[in-house]
């Protein structure tokens, strides 16, 4: 498909063939919703002790391996009405290269897998903390190989990253036909107030048709208990620095770690909404 127009760019960072299809499906749904495009990149992390020049001598072998992954991405993206570009990058810097690609391509969102140190390369400390405080765009990080986006749960207590979660759920509903449920956890006795909050929040985020679930008790225990019944749980970051923890091999909370259901973690860098960033221009 030929790339046209000024629609949003959704960058999908690929590293693992087992998660490629799921990541491309998420990126494709986001891009298709408002006429955007997908940029699929494969960052080949080169060990620090190996020079990039030496790695480039094996470029043909690396290109063959990368081409297989990126060809699969193009094939999977064909299910969506979006143009796709691909790129292979040799780098010592791993996750930093993803940040650079997001900036240089003017990406509106990044979709990537939870690979622990897979993306980290040999230079995690220091610079990554600085990067995590200055995200170039919205980040969506999938933990799980085979999510089922037909049945999605979005826990929310409000906040910018929950807004991002809602926007992703709406895209999956509109493009992939997902059934969306919203979860809000309250103290015992506050169920009526909680349901009123959740109904208002759903209406304000274009999810008035979602199933509303109000639970009582501990928030993390409720997410773990309810989330087991869904094909995908979209969890907004409750604090800054999600990316820093993820690359070091630590997810957002114990509840998320324990969930058997695939989890999509969302972090928003500013008050600007994904709809504004993705679909409303710059």
Automatic annotation (TrEMBL):
Residues 9-141, 152-265 form the UspA domain. Pfam families: Usp (PF00582). InterPro entries: UspA. Belongs to the universal stress protein A family. This is Universal stress protein. It comes from Halorubrum rutilum.
